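hey so i finally got around to running the thing on that chain from the lab meeting. sorry it took forever, my laptop kept dying and i had to restart like 3 times. anyway pasting the input first so we r on the same page abt which one it is
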Amino acid sequence: MLPPLVSRLVSDPSLAIEHARRYAALTEAELAYAGQYWQRRAVAAVAAAVLLGVGLMLGGVALLVAQGPGAQAGWQASWLFWAVPLVPLALGVLAAFIAAGSVQPTPFATLRAQLAQDAALLLPATAQTAAQAMANSAVAQSPEPVGEPAFSPPSSASSAPAREAEPS
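ok and heres what got predicted. didnt touch it at all, straight out
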């Protein structure tokens, strides 16, 4: 006699293929999300480096011009020598804070949760042990009694969502 999972896969192999397809789609979505995060961070870091470099060059030019013959003649807009470099310097510092201060998401958190959920369905003893460990750690951390564990294995009923009746 075959275990129920094996007999189900033998009778309908498209279920395993569909499950693998959905794992691939979930992995693709997680990779796209991580790629967007790193791309934003890289763009912010490059922008910070460019803006800080431009600000430093403009500051150097302002320093040279401020010491030139126009400064001795009492040129009226001497504040402009220092205001112009401050704009890219301020934007560069802002971009550096954006690049360094962004919170890195937990990579593949959804995929890990799905794998844990599937493992719990395939290995009920592991799920019960994990639920008991979670309950024990919660009891050790809080003085009040703990109710049911956060994870409970699904019932043996069909996992397909029930369709709502359409109004006639």
